[in-house]
Amino acid sequence: MQLLFADHDHVPHDPPVISEKIIVEVMAAPEEKPRTAAAPNAKVFFPGLQDGAVIPPRSLVRFGQENIAIAPAGTRQDNAGHHHLLVDTELPPLDREIPSDFNHLHFGRGQTETELTLPPGEHTLQLLFADHEHVPHDPPVMSQKIRVRVQAASVTAPAAAAPPPARAASGRTPAPNDASVYFIYPRDGTRIFATSTIRFGLRNMGVAPAGVVRPNTGHHHLLVDVATPPLDVAIPSDLNHIHLGNGQTERKITLPPGEHTLQLILGDDQHVPHDPPIMSERITIYVGAPAKRRPRR
Q1: What DSSP line would sit under 242-273, residue for residue?
Q2: 242-282 pLDDT tens trace
Q3: In sequence order, what are the residues at sequence separation of 6 or more whose Cβ sits closer than 8 angstroms to the Cβ of residue 183?
Q4: Are residues 76 and 144 in the same domain?
Q5: 163 in a domain, yes or no?
Q6: Which domain holds residue 65?
Q7: Where among 150, 165, 199 does a domain terminate?
């Protein structure tokens, strides 16, 4: 494989901007693992929420299940699993891990309810139960897909501009309680090159660029060698607070040799941390080769 950069007419630049050629090995597809069995009479449903219901922009949605137990993600247990809420999307493939984004909300701690924020209009909701690896059971345990209509409290007021996004009591944008952000690379204690690509991961939320208002989304901010900033105002933008406002999920940075700290914080459309804040642990990394030991004489 090789990358070649080109201009607006697909013509390489002068001088050409080209990567090294790399060789990759394509492995044979792994054998399909059998899915976790579920009781044939197991079912999941929305208690108290019917198809066609009218709900406010911010609603408590409860999940029910029968003839199957709740177990957190990562905990293997017969005839057990955890909930996934599908919002405005079709069923994913039932023989592999359910995606994790703002249309596929995971409740891997065993939650049976969530506070959901949606814009006014028509929406669809569906529950899909899955095992310790987020893979649907065999047979799949899923609810009927229902339609709900989100309606602002004041429906008789004259037409006006679109209402602002829902805010928590703190005034900050709400986030799911089980959302998390983390470093795919590097990990805590890793020794890296002076110029390295830092990669970010996000669970139970989606990525949206700065300035884009969309429920359960935000964008990354990379903190380098700095303490966590105040969580009730916009995150600063400087060499220690790197904004990824275009929705990037990685960033190439250059650091001097030595010990450094990195931390990720997700910010909303206005660069303000969510409520609750979605931030990683602060990790320590080391730049440069380890000191060579002097040979014994």
Answers
A1: EE-TT--SEEEEE--SEEEEEEEEEE-TTS-B
A2: 999 998 999 999 999 999 999 999 999 999 999 999 999 99
A3: 198, 199, 200, 201, 262, 264, 280, 283
A4: yes
A5: no
A6: 43-150
A7: 150
Q: For residue 206, give the CATH number of its domain.
A: 2.60.40.10
Which residues are 181's β-sheet partners? 202
What's the pTM? 0.50
- For residues 125 and 219, state if they share a domain: no
Residue 60: count of CB within 10 angstroms of its CB = 12
State the sign of the Cα–Cα–Cα–Cα dihedral 85, 148, 214, 113: negative
Structural domains in the chain (count): 2
C-alpha distance from residue 73 to each of 80, 94, 97 (Å): 10, 17, 12
Distances (CA, A) of 281 to 90, 227, 261, 293: 34, 11, 10, 32
Q: What is the rounded distance in angstroms from the CA atom of residue 254 to the CA atom of residue 267?
A: 23
pLDDT, tens only, 64-120: 999 999 998 888 999 999 999 999 999 999 999 998 887 898 888 888 988 888 889
Nearest to 102 by CA among 216, 179, 212: 216
